[in-house]
Amino acid sequence: MRFRRLGSSVMVAAVGATMCQVLPAIADASPRAKISKTIKLSALRTDLVVDSPSMGKAIRVSVLTPRTGGGPRPTVYLLDGAGATKGVSDWITKGKAGQFFANKNVNVVLPMGGAGSFYTNWRKRDRKLGKPQWETFLTRELPPLVDSRFNGTGRNALIGLSMGGQAAYALLARNPRLYTGAASLSGCPPVSGPLNQGYVRTTVAKSGGDADNMWGPPGSKQWQAHDPAMHLDALRGKHLYLSAGSGAIGPMDLQSRPDEDMPKEAVNASGSALELGAYRCSLEFSLQLRHAGIAYTDGFRLIGTHSWPYWRGDLPAAWATVSRGLF
């Protein structure tokens, strides 16, 4: 009888050990993001089609690689503004990112199709924008794929304009171990207070969405969770850049822009108002950083509207700042 009991105990222990070995395999069986298609568009640009479990669909991403330098290389993520198109990042077509980064030993990742989303995880399905899960995609699913395919070092930074500027700081504050720095060009990083909340809600509404489906009612816990100003300690020691213009019209606003389908006066009036709002909000954030004793690089301009000629001009200084944490 003693032998039988001992034998039964051994068998139970063996089964338990076997189950412990099986359980991790079962947990690892959940769907993972994968590259389903690779499109080589030029010597320095490769487009990826990534099957994303979190997004529930395929997401297209461009990756720019340098002319020289075999790697390993760090990675910088460039985030579009609210008018982001699905076919190609505005950073490529309007920001001339390809030319700027061609001689820099870094992988440049440009996600497409984030218009009005703030590159965040939405809490509820929106009738127009669906239920994006950009934070999960950008911070969990995409980085290991990029590092594996393009010889990445695992060191990352973010540069975003307008809506993407807020997202850059929010992603950094929420994932400080993943990123070494962030840059906001004409963005509004803090989202607390009526003016800043109004900016977010208006930006989402321009794409046909409802910001309540993104973070809930204004002032709720999710709004606070995505406000970098409420998580300043996560930004301490990071390489930070802030820029915006005053909204005053300058010489570059008087030049013809063939890609615009509205009269120049209307374009300038809209760009001036948008930039004035970004200027106020960015100054507010800069004061919060200073009060907390957090260093940042100041790129504020006395002139400039919410437009690409100024963002192209800001890119070298933004890169000079965030690159210090990448190499």
Describe this structure in words.
The protein has 327 residues and is of the alpha/beta class. It folds into two domains: 1-30; 34-325, 3-Layer(aba) Sandwich (Rossmann fold), CATH 3.40.50.1820. Helix content is 39%, strand content 18%. The chain is built from ten helices and nine strands. Strands 1-2-3-5-4-6-7-8-9 form a nine-stranded mixed sheet, sandwiched between helices. Strand 2 (45-52) and strand 3 form a beta hairpin. The relative contact order is 0.12. Residues 1-28 have low confidence and may be disordered.
Write the layout of secondary structure elements.
Elements: H1 2-27, E1 34-40, E2 45-52, E3 57-64, E4 73-79, H2 90-93, H3 97-101, E5 107-111, H4 134-149, E6 152-161, H5 163-174, E7 179-185, H6 194-206, H7 212-215, H8 221-225, E8 239-243, H9 264-291, E9 297-298, H10 308-322
